[in-house]
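Running this now, will post back.
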Amino acid sequence: MQSNSKEDFSDRGWYLEPLSGFLDLMTQNWEADRQAYWEDKGGPEGVKNGKVAFEKIKMLSDGLFESSQNIGDDTYLVGVAKDIGAIACMFEEKDMLVQYLAEQLELHLVSGFLPRIENGAIKLISLFRVLSYLESFTLNKSVLDFLRLVIRNYVWGFDTECVILCRSAMEMAIRERISDEMCEKHLGNRRGQYTLVDRIAVAGKENLLSDKEVKVAHSIRERGNTALHKDPGVTKDIIGTIKMTTVLIGTMTRDL
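Update: finished.
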């Protein structure tokens, strides 16, 4: 692995490279330079054992981001902690090991997020029409906060979370518009205990949602429920869910 990104790009020029490729090379060069630093600080044996500790922590961190059979296993977690504790004595001090492991995890996380930068830019472009549509309405702060979270999760590729938050944003908008008094009028007195299903039905009865829009609201609700309670891996047509949600929120906030 060669250091000095300037020389690596000198033939074609830095700015002819895709940004993600340039950042990747910079990361590789930084990693190589830091490797020499750590060998000087902890010695080759210390770095070797530090890498063993990193691989164990990496497995643990991957389990937090991806499905893992081991992540809920207490014996596995205890084993990782004991192994890392044993390796710590190979470094001059524990703080040094923590710094080394933190750097290695930074590199690991960067490698996973670099591809998301390019995809995120394309996703933002795909949201321009949605965002311009929302400018036509005055949104409650709570609804707007949920929509911001929807957009962030979509851009960074957290599709399951995005679908769950679409449901939350829609529910907040419907709760803001469909009061307990409206629900009591159509469904009787339940002491304020009205579900999202109830409020969607009342929105239809109050002619705030058409029959088609009521079906759309239930579709968003069901997608969110499936992602949250049944199968987080089953997420499809994310941009379609976002568009349906924003249009429905626009409908619920019109004339306010």
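The chain has eleven helices and no strands. More later if anyone needs it.
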